[in-house]
Amino acid sequence: MTAELTRYRLRHRARPIDVWVAGDGPPIVLLHGWGLSGRVYRDAVLAIASRGYRVAAPSLAVAESWKMDMIAEMAAEAMAGVDAAPAPVLGHSFGGAVGVTLAVQHPDFVRAVVPISAPLVSLGTRGMGKVVLPGRHFRIVTHAPAAAALLRAATTRGGIGSLARAARWVIGNGQDPRLETLAATDIPRAVVWAEEDSLLSPEVGRRAAEVLACTFHLIGGGNGWNGTRLPDHDWPMRHPEHFADTILRILGSLLPADPDYGLHA
Q1: How far apart are CA 14 and CA 9, in angstroms?
Q2: Based on the structure, what is the number of domains in the chain?
Q3: Which of 49, 137, 222, 225 could be disulfide-bonded to 22 (CB atoms 3.0-4.6 Å)?
């Protein structure tokens, strides 16, 4: 990889926003999962950037008086602040919910939206139990950058409150009204899921895709996969090259007539 990761520090009201940027070319935005940061996705950002794109990954885990609408506003400000709008928006895990809200509230900023293993519909009691109880999905926090980012978010002023409100949002809010609003727009969209996602069942993704009236992509062991296990929830972080190729191919199918993004169709 020849691209380098650069941090830009912006401000939202009294709170700094770090935006990690790499590459030159058409913009792509990557939104991180719950409690993490843009820097956690360093390898994925660099992998996409090395294929001819300018990738921006803002850090949005902590906010004053956390509300989902405010996080989407922060994402829009971050995109504008590093000249990355409009752009296709990739949202991994909780970042997918932010991406949907961003697309609904700021459609002029979003060329396409791709939630990736994102909690967009109600998980149900069984699904929430799977998230909370110990299991294979806990290996996500063994990824050192993710563990460091979560600790940093928790120890930042207002961090515990932000993380708690975000978690309650997932527990208490299906996004069906927002999904239906997005489905009524002409913004290209697709839902992507890891076949062996140990945190969120692919069925959650299929239901979200139905409400969004869009394609559902289940990512398994084909298309250059070289892992010893099938893709799991942390696939973008642990297999960034495969992630980059897969996502660019999906963006190409969503924007086939666009000379910037349709080359990978």
Answers
A1: 12
A2: 1
A3: 49
Whichever domain contains 52, its CATH number is 3.40.50.1820
Within-domain flag for 63: yes
Residue 265 lies in a domain: no
Task: For residue range 61-71, list pLDDT tens digits in order.
Answer: 988 778 999 99
pLDDT digits (tens, 9 = 90+) for 30-79: 999 999 999 999 999 999 999 999 999 999 998 877 899 999 999 999 99
